[in-house]
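Re: [ENG-882] Designed sequences occasionally contain unexpected residues at chain ends

Forwarding the minimal case from QA. Structure tokens:
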């Protein structure tokens, strides 16, 4: 990897909280917490591979070229804590320190360049919004270069499309910033 290479690590859901129970229960009335890591986390990350035209890091962040390495995010997402994934407190927020600690897991020995991981903080069905944080960091020393907080509105048919469109909408907001 060259020093100026960008590696997109994917969507990290380990901090995700679902705000209020409304909209986050399955057909049997049970919370969807256990379904998320086994179905949706993988599907949402795969969309960055299979639908690169729509979910394009070049478009979102203005980087001319990038590679995708989802190995770490896949493992981290499998470890998603399901016992308290639904919270009623809308003031839930992930701190910069929590994200800085989490990026220590990203990258491999000798790897250089800029890493980008998107931490998905919350899905709020009541308010119709998703909050994500795009974190840019130096892969070699895991130092945070920039954290962008973004918010997007969900839309579309079905749970999968509804929430991935919210993530896409949030990332689309950054386009103007990064083009400058």
């Amino acid at each position: 990897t060259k020093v100026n290479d960008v590696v997109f690590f994917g969507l990290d859901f380990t901090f995700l909280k679902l705000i209020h129970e409304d909209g986050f229960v399955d057909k049997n009335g049970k919370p969807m917490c256990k379904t998320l890591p086994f179905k949706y986390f993988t599907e949402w990350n795969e969309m960055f591979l299979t639908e690169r035209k729509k979910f394009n890091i070049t478009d979102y962040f203005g980087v001319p070229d990038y590679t995708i390495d989802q190995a770490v995010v896949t493992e981290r997402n499998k470890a998603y804590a399901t016992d308290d994934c639904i919270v009623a407190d809308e003031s839930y927020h992930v701190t910069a320190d929590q994200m800085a600690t989490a990026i220590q897991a990203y990258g491999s020995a000798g790897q250089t360049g800029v890493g980008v991981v998107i931490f998905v903080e919350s899905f709020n069905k009541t308010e119709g919004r998703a909050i994500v944080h795009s974190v840019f960091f130096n892969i070699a020393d895991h130092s945070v270069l920039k954290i962008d907080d973004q918010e997007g509105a969900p839309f579309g048919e079905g749970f999968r499309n509804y929430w991935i469109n919210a993530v896409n909408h949030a990332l689309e907001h950054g386009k103007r910033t990064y083009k400058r």
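QA comment: On inspection the terminal residues look reasonable. The radius of gyration is 16 Å. Proposing we downgrade this to a documentation issue.
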